[in-house]
Specification:
This protein is of the alpha/beta class. 42% of the residues lie in helices and 14% in strands. A seven-stranded mixed β-sheet has the order 3-2-1-4-5-9-8, with helices on both faces. A two-stranded parallel sheet has the order 6-7.
Length: 259
């Protein structure tokens, strides 16, 4: 079982438009189900802590309903940890949930940058979907390079911002900013699924890509678990061989003593 931290925005309004926003429920719910069904443990954190704002729940989506009605999830979301106080050493992966609010609070959160960098630099997985990759913009690797530099990534596209009617209110175009940092932005058509895996970084373009991001992270987890089991088996075999050799040496010593 692996432990995953889902990080959510604390922004509840799009700029000064009066339009309510928050984390995208579908982008949290569908990965949550993938992780939960695989037996992993999911924790929640947000930029400011407490109960994070959320976008509308699609009541026709049974997975969103299951997510919002799950008692453990409701308890976790009622009072999320503030990213500044989260111990990244507890987690095998971090997943950045999208929602337009992330464009305002994810990029400048030093706490979030530290968690993402720590998890990745320690060999863990980093996932992000839609506007969630805004949380990757200022993350540095051990070598000092930006995490996204030279990597293939997916994120909400300029065309999708226009289609969503948010191109005039967002502080920047996320796909453009990623490209400016040296990322290779990969995209599909508007609101079509696109998931990109680059080593231990998994990103998705839009809400339709959320479950796919989690599934790709799960594949990477499976590889890690397989490797860990192989190492455990190897260690056990080495230990058994050492004990057998020790027994043989004792028997030989006892036989020589008799003569």
């Amino acid at each position: 079982m692996k432990k995953i931290l889902m990080v959510l925005t604390s922004v509840s309004e799009i700029a000064d438009t009066g339009e309510k926003t928050g984390y995208n429920v579908a982008e949290a719910a569908h990965p949550w189900k993938v992780f939960k069904d695989s037996g992993h443990f999911v924790d929640f954190a947000s930029i400011k802590g407490g109960q994070p704002p959320r976008d509308e729940v699609d009541t026709h989506d049974p997975i969103q309903l299951a997510f919002t009605n799950d008692e453990a999830t409701r308890a976790g979301l009622y009072n999320t940890a503030r990213v500044d106080v989260v111990d990244p050493g507890q987690y095998d992966a971090i997943y950045l949930v999208g929602g337009h609010g992330t464009m305002w609070d994810f990029p400048e959160s030093e706490g979030l940058q530290k968690i993402v960098a720590s998890v990745y630099n320690s060999g863990g997985l980093v996932g992000a979907v839609c506007h969630g990759p805004a949380g990757l913009l200022n993350v540095k690797q051990k070598n000092g390079l930006n995490l996204v530099q030279g990597r293939r990534v997916a994120a909400f596209t300029n065309a999708e911002e226009v289609a969503a009617g948010k191109d005039k209110v967002i502080p920047f175009f996320l796909a453009d900013r990623l490209a400016e940092l040296g990322a290779i932005v990969v995209s599909a058509g508007d609101f079509e699924e696109m998931v990109v895996v680059d080593e231990r970084l998994v990103t998705g373009q839009n809400p339709a890509s959320a479950a796919g991001v989690a599934k790709e992270m799960e594949k990477l987890f499976a590889e890690v678990i397989h490797h860990e089991k192989a190492e455990e088996q190897h260690d056990a075999e080495v230990l058994r061989a050492e004990k057998d050799a020790e027994k043989s040496a004792k028997k030989k010593a006892a036989a020589e003593a008799e003569h």
